């Protein structure tokens, strides 16, 4: 880096430095020259800030805490939704609690999240206020933020405490996939069964509770309101790790250090490049229930050392090799396994009779051993592209999710056996039609046969993708009886899989919530049919050809839609929204060609965006081909002005495409 920056003017930001030594280690990477370069650092520790700016301490900027008004506004919004909703008898105790928070946003949000779950009574709130004080007095070094976080933790029900402690195994700032987390919890038995509810639904409710209590942070909220992933604030993670070590919940090997723990290692998490001697110095791994590895560890403990392992999570282990899992057959209690990099699975995999999740998405495996069909308890099977499955897959009778089933790589017999998996809820299919098939006609026939069977049982989600341009017209009219339980259908993939028209069975799907589809020709009757889908929340619609009438979206339809993504490959003027259209739409993505808009609607068209009163996010791609710069600027201004009139005041994210092909002002 020093060599790269030499003789350059540079501006570098280094976020969240925790020690003076860290600054000493990295500052040598930045050459000191006379080019007016600048380095900005952030830290929570004043001594570190002074070290970074030495000898010019005048450059240290202390972030000021929130003032009283902003503190109260933040607290009231999280607790009651609005400041005016606070009962009169709680106003005095609210001021006392806010004084304890000292204007620190994290402290305010966490204590407000805690109080939001309790009765709005003065006695209840006074008890919480006293608890903050006692926690602070017991440990002056912790400060008010950590004392409030401790209070929030001890207020959790037991089942949430356990699940929260399990997050200590993940490194700082790691984005934790939501479904990965739930499956791990299920494998370890951390989710408590409830009559009439699936374990996945209960796990979803656990994550929602932890988010609502501000113990974890959501990442990437989708159309259903669920986060794609979650992360833990670093201060919260520090607290969780200390509690986890204190309770001997998990042991973490990080930067050549072993967190203090009792003799029994119940959960082992290896971060980075750790030496083998660290785990050899422990009292053995025979009680370890989960092993997770992140980063570039040189080696992992032999699998033979584990006797009761339930979770083997190696998908973030960059140095994993085939030999590391050679003895996987000895892990007879294993319920969750995830791998990266490896090129084959040992035949011993068939011995894992309790295995529920086998995640191979990040591997280079091209064929599964015949013994995999012996995994009769398997619920989730995730494959990389182009895997050949053995005959007899229909013996995996509990399988509910199968992703990246490659049609071209599997025999007709396996394609037909797919239809016998009556518990299958989620299916991802890789479809190829560029000569990879031995008999493409038969493959289509067998796939349709299996889909028809699955559609009559439990199939809820179907994803079809391709790496080459492919037609899916064989599905358009042949899926009978119609898959009435289908909730998600996606045939876009990387926008190579295409239908010549909208399938006739789609308008009959009364439970459909998510539709991603590419059709060659979109007709006005197709849009009318889609408008009538009662539960549709997300629509990703791409077409190669459509009329102005089709693009006009009027009132009376799309009553539940929250997110709409529209695009036409041939450009076009974009959609027009009439008054009353899409009353609940929150996110809108669309593209248009400036030249076509000007021709069809005139300059300064705002597409009726001002009619979308629920809109919160707006993404627009502008094709500038053959347009003047003034026309592009006029179009952008119209969109921004229209969005400014909406109640939520979304800030449009506008992307220009084809700027080099714009017509100069002095050209015809």
From TrEMBL:
Q: Where is the Disease resistance protein winged helix domain?
A: 169-240
**Which residue intervals define the domain NB-ARC in the entry?**
3-83
The alphabetized UniProt keywords are: Plant defense, Repeat
Which InterPro entries does the UniProt entry name for this protein? Apaf_helical (IPR042197), Disease_R_plants (IPR044974), LRR_dom_sf (IPR032675), LRR_R13L4/SHOC2-like (IPR055414), NB-ARC (IPR002182), P-loop_NTPase (IPR027417), WH-like_DNA-bd_sf (IPR036388), WHD_DRP (IPR058922)
**One Pfam match:** NB-ARC
MF terms (GO), sorted A to Z: ADP binding
Say if the entry is tagged with keyword Repeat.
Answer: yes
Presence of keyword Repeat: yes
Name a biological process GO annotation. innate immune response-activating signaling pathway
The Disease resistance R13L4/SHOC-2-like LRR domain, residue ranges:
287-651
Q: Which residue ranges run through the membrane?
A: none
User: What highest taxon heads this organism's lineage?
Assistant: Eukaryota
Q: List the PANTHER family hit by this protein, alphabetically.
A: DISEASE RESISTANCE PROTEIN RP (PTHR23155), NB-ARC DOMAIN CONTAINING PROTEIN, EXPRESSED (PTHR23155:SF1228)
The name this protein goes by in its record: NB-ARC domain-containing protein
Q: Which organism is it from?
A: Panicum virgatum
């Amino acid at each position: 880096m020093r060599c790269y920056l030499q003789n350059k003017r540079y501006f570098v930001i280094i976020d969240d430095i925790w020690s003076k030594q860290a600054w000493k280690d990295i500052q040598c990477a930045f050459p000191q020259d006379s080019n007016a370069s600048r380095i900005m650092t952030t830290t929570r520790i004043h001594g570190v800030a002074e070290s970074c700016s030495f000898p010019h301490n005048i450059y240290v900027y202390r972030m000021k805490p929130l003032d009283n008004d902003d503190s109260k506004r933040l607290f009231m919004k999280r607790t009651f939704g609005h400041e005016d909703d606070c009962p009169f008898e709680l106003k005095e105790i609210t001021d006392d609690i806010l004084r304890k928070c000292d204007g620190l946003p994290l402290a305010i949000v966490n204590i407000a999240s805690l109080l939001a779950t309790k009765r709005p009574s003065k006695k209840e709130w006074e008890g919480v206020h006293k608890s903050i004080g006692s926690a602070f007095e017991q440990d002056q070094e912790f400060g008010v933020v950590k004392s409030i976080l401790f209070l929030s933790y001890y207020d959790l029900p037991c089942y949430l405490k356990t699940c929260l402690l399990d997050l200590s195994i993940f490194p700082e700032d790691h984005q934790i996939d939501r479904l990965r987390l739930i499956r791990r919890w299920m494998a370890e038995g951390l989710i408590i069964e409830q009559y009439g509810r699936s374990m996945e639904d209960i796990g979803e409710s656990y994550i929602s509770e932890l988010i609502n209590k501000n113990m974890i942070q959501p990442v990437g909220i989708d159309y259903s309101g669920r986060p794609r992933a979650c992360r833990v604030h670093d201060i919260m993670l520090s607290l969780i790790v200390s509690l986890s070590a204190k309770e001997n919940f998990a042991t973490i090997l990080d930067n050549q250090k072993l967190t203090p723990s009792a003799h029994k290692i119940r959960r082992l998490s290896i971060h980075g490049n750790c030496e083998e001697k660290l785990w050899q110095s422990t009292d053995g791994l025979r009680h370890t229930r989960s092993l997770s590895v992140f980063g570039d560890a040189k080696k992992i403990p032999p699998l033979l050392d584990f006797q009761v392992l339930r979770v083997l999570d190696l998908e973030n282990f960059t140095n994993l090799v085939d030999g590391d899992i050679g003895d996987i057959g000895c892990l007879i209690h294993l319920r969750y396994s995830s791998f990266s990099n490896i090129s084959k699975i040992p035949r011993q995999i068939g011995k894992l009779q309790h295995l529920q999740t086998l995640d191979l998405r990040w591997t280079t495996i091209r064929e599964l051993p015949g013994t995999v069909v012996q995994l009769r308890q398997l619920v989730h099977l995730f494959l990389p592209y182009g895997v050949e499955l053995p005959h007899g897959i229909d013996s995996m009778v509990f399988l509910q999710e199968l992703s990246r089933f490659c049609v071209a790589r599997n025999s007709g017999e396996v394609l037909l056996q797919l239809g016998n998996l009556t518990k299958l809820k989620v299916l991802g299919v890789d479809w190829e039609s560029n000569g990879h098939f031995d008999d493409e006609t038969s493959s289509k026939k067998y796939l349709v046969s299996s889909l028809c069977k699955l559609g009559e049982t439990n199939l809820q989600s179907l994803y079809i993708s391709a790496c080459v341009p492919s037609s899916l017209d064989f599905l358009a009219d042949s899926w009978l009886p119609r898959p009435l339980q289908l909730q998600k259908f996606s045939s876009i993939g990387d926008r190579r899989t295409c239908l010549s028209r909208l399938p006739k069975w789609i308008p009959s799907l009364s439970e459909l919530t998510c539709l991603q589809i590419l059709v060659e020709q979109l007709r006005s009757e197709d849009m009318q049919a889609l408008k009538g889908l009662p539960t549709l929340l997300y629509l990703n619609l791409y077409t190669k050809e459509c009329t102005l009438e089709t693009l006009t979206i009027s009132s009376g339809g799309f009553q539940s839609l929250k997110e709409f993504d529209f695009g036409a490959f041939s450009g076009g003027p974009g959609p027009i929204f009439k008054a009353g259209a899409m009353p609940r739409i929150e996110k809108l993505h669309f593209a248009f060609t400036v030249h076509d808009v000007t021709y069809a609607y005139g300059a300064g068209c705002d597409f009726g965006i001002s009619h979308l009163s629920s809109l919160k996010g707006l993404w627009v791609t502008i094709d500038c081909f053959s347009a003047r710069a003034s026309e592009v600027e006029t179009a952008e201004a119209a969109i921004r002005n229209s969005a400014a009139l909406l109640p939520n005041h979304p800030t449009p994210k506008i992307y220009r495409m084809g700027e080099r092909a714009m017509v100069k002002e002095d050209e015809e």
